[in-house]
Sequence to fold (496 residues):
Amino acid sequence: MEISFWEIVRVFTKTVKERLKLLPAACMLLICGQLQAAEVELDPSDWGIEEGKECVKCHTKTSAGLAEQWRQSRHAEVGMNCLDCHQADASDVDAIQHEGFTIATIVSPKDCGRCHVVETEQNSSSVHANAVSLITDRMPVMAANLGGKAIIDAGCAQCHGSEVKVKGDGTLDTATWPNSGIGRINPDGSKGSCSSCHGRHAFSKAQARDPSSCMRCHSGPDSPDRAIYEASKHGMAYFAHKEKMNLDSDSWIAGKDYVSAPTCVTCHMGAAGKLPTNHDVGMRNAWNLNTPVSEKQYLVIYEDGDKSEIPASQPVPDRGTEHTKIDGSQGTVKVVVPPDRRRKAMRMVCLECHGKNFATSFMDQFDSVVELYNEKFGKPAQSIMLDLYDKGLLTPAPFDEPIEFTYWEIWHDEGARARHGAAMASPNHTWWEGIYLVSRNFYSKFLPQVRAVAGDEADALISRYVTDVKEHHGWLDNPEKGNPILGYGTRKSGDD
Fold:
């Protein structure tokens, strides 16, 4: 289904007028010439609960750093204090009595959404907010089997989030708290953690815009973006000119308020030209780069605002039909955004600093790397593994055999680095840290392990998915063709 790009923009911004009726003067989306983030204006008559001043006095003695962070915040500047955010109703599942006040330890997106309406709505249906659901069938089985619950609590859940559980007395279960994971499921049912990026209790815009905020989680094998960004031309420019980035500015539009370099936020969330900011971090992603085989993704937006992604190889639902969401519930489809429209949004960011031909050609190069990885390594390795499972040559239990570790690392580690490296303009991660390692492990570890597991069936299996693909693996059929790259052919006549 084809829709215009500006129709997509309207889908993500139209709720502002509706919400303004509920929260007068609380939140505005500035749509005057250049689009910007929603500005929050606090009404002094509604904020600055008098009793909350006692919280500040006490915490200045008991948690001096916490109190000072708040004093440096925009919240303190406009007169908001601890009680404005932490106040709770006695009926709330996580309500506790603290120094004569009824409060909740966790300030959830639902609480932040009383002011930050637009941002909360956008984030609540994003891949960030659904980070727990997205790994339910993947990461825990690995972490639980190879590690244990302590690793899940202190590792996986600290990025993806945990389901915070409440004890009978209203206190939080220490097995699930503290946790600032981006997809945290809060006691009030809301998803996400604003402090994961903005950091309590200052809730700094500059902190959230700085790449280091994203690098807390987007580093390591599965999401190698820290090292890639730091090695890229974008990262080089950012670190050289950070003082010119205007990170703490109320308005932060690429090409207007800063021009030195893009950050993670610039490309994935930030305003650029006529493109508005958006707290749905996955809105502009045309590809899924963290799967065994990458596919372009359709974005399905439901009537209630929830979203989900559908790989291009699967049927795409029509507008008005029912479709299964990420959490398993049913939703009515409002609009389907095709991958090329998502790509167009990302390209609009690029065009603030690059010419049209430059931006288009760069993305063509990126697409070519993803397609090469898919066809040369991703699809053959996946097909071989599925055949080994189907034939009963591998047990269903994950990670109990060496080949499963090799396969996992090919797509999850090296393959992810190659694809992300191409996306973020880091040639060394595309090649030496990416495809080179993919190919080394594919040819020198994976295929020998296939032969060990499959025995007499190995040759037919490898021939079907590898050596018959002449475009990519034809060089294996010419073993007599040498190359001095490994030293062969460099010996001179008469040398011993």
Remarks:
- The chain has 23 helices and twelve strands.
- The radius of gyration is 26 Å.
